[in-house]
Write a structure and sequence with these properties.
BirA Bifunctional Protein, domain 2, binds histidyl-adenosine monophosphate, 2 domains, 5-stranded mixed beta sheet, 8-stranded mixed beta sheet, Rossmann fold
């Protein structure tokens, strides 16, 4: 046999894994619907240009791109946001605002496969478009938290670390760093926690080339700002700077809304978060397991310029993406993965060919009534069939032998305690519904 394996970073889903994927999607969908979000979708394969222009360098390095047979430059989607911006942009003028949309789909990034990072992963995206104020950011952060809480996690299990590219830009301006250099400086801020001092200084020197700002001093100032953890400390830092003080007013609105919605415990201020994607413009955030080393559970933020850049109207937008990989690791750790139980409701044990036609008639009736029913495809003895019924994961067997057929009954057998009772075949649907709800006592004489 040839040994052709899956590609690195791609997963196969056996039924028990696929059941978990289904569970994850269910919880995500339920949370999004509770917030009034509507589901959308878009192609997995897209023109390369959709991402090279909009997502930023890091993602472009990770594209699964190639030329199709028609000579088009195409790529598997690494994320959903540019497609969303294109779709909303094309019809935005006729849409009632704000627009609340969510999507669940697979995305592909050519990253180094490692714990929490694969090359193909499922992602939930939820986005709110058409509202520029912090109320929309709060709504998105609240939904992100509720998507995690839906799995049985508590607010103590994760932290949503909120930061702000607008505040960073205003702070860097107060240091004399012009807007043109600010994005490169944020690239250095992104590495503050991991980078060696020498590399950071080198990167800051490169970022500030052509300005009069001293890189060493800028580094110290950036570190102090990044480590500010409370609104009160930020207000002290902003004192006398009108632009920063004005922005802190929006922070108060954001935090007060999140507190009113009941999310004060899981939301923290963390200005070390700046986000790798190029399109973010305002508040940004990432969700992490509390105290853990694992990679982010979710990430998002405001991207007010993207819809217009993709040919649509000027439409403010904010959203987040949540992946299934780190989420599954966390749920496993917290023992919150549901037990896989996928057996049928009933297993019909057909004993002898004479009983088969009548038994199949009942199987078909029960399936049409919505029950999950399996039966033995081949004839077999009682003991073997009882074993098959248990292996299939059924709780009850329906015994069809010559005697039962002659009497016009079906024998229902509990596979847990082996108790048995007969039910007239004409009453089968209501009787079995009662058995599923109340157990065998519903039909015991
Ligand atoms: P992102 O931070 O690149 O944002 O991805 C969001 C989440 O997707 C991550 O926090 C992680 O859970 C998951 N994820 C990303 N890459 C991988 C990977 N290679 N393997 C496993 N999981 C991964 C975005 O994608 C933005 N488009 C989110 C957004 C929506 N912003 C606004 N709207």
């Amino acid at each position: 046999m040839s040994d052709i394996r899956t590609l690195p970073g791609f997963r196969e889903f056996y039924p028990e894994d696929q059941a978990l994927v289904g569970h994850t999607f269910d919880i995500w969908r339920q949370a999004c619907r509770r917030y009034g979000f509507r589901e959308w979708n878009s192609p997995v394969l897209e023109p390369l240009e959709l991402f090279t222009e909009k997502s930023g360098e890091e993602i472009v390095r990770q594209l699964f791109n190639f030329e199709d047979k028609g000579g088009r430059k195409v790529t598997l989607r690494p994320e959903l946001t540019p497609a969303l911006a294109r779709m909303v942009g094309a019809k935005a003028n006729g849409m009632p605002k704000p627009i609340r949309w969510f999507a669940i789909g697979e995305s592909y990034r050519y990253e180094k496969p490692q714990k929490g990072r694969l090359r193909a992963f499922y992602q939930l995206n939820a986005d709110l478009l058409g509202e520029a104020g912090p109320a929309a950011d709060a709504e998105i952060i609240a939904l992100c938290a509720d998507c995690l809480l839906g799995f049985g996690l508590t607010q103590a299990d994760f932290r949503i670390r909120v930061s702000d590219r607008t505040l960073w830009f205003r702070y860097l301006a107060s240091l004399g760093i012009p807007e043109a250099q600010a994005t490169a400086v944020l690239g250095v801020v992104d590495k503050l926690e991991r980078g060696a001092p020498k590399d950071l200084l080198e990167a800051m020197t490169a970022a500030l080339a052509g300005t009069a700002v001293d890189p060493a001093q800028a580094l110290v100032a950036a570190r102090a700002f990044a480590n500010t953890k409370s609104l009160a400390d930020l207000e002290r830092l902003a004192a006398g700077d009108a632009a920063m003080t004005e922005r802190l007013g929006e922070w108060k609105h954001l935090l007060a809304t999140l507190t009113a919605l009941g999310f004060a415990e899981c939301v923290t201020i963390d200005l070390t978060i700046v986000r790798g994607l190029a399109y973010y413009t305002g508040f940004v955030f990432e969700a992490f397991e509390t105290g853990g080393e694992a990679r982010a559970l979710a990430g998002g933020g405001r991207y007010d310029a993207l819809v217009k850049k993709l040919g649509g109207p000027d439409l403010p937008a904010v959203g987040f993406g949540m992946g299934d990989v780190t989420l599954r690791d966390l749920l496993e750790l917290k023992k919150l993965l549901p037990v896989y139980a996928d057996g049928p409701d009933f297993y019909a044990m057909i004993l002898g060919d004479d009983a088969r036609a009548a038994a199949l008639e009942d199987v078909a009736t029960l399936r049409r009534a919505g029950f999950r029913v399996e039966y033995n495809l081949r004839d077999g003895k009682f003991g073997k069939l009882a074993q098959q019924a248990e292996t299939a994961g059924a709780k009850y067997a329906l015994v069809y032998g010559g005697g039962e057929i002659a009497k016009g009954v079906t024998k229902v057998r509990s596979l847990t305690d082996r108790s048995e009772a007969e039910v007239p075949r004409t009453d089968l649907v209501p009787a079995l519904r009662a058995v599923l709800e109340e157990g065998m006592r519903a039909i015991m004489p």
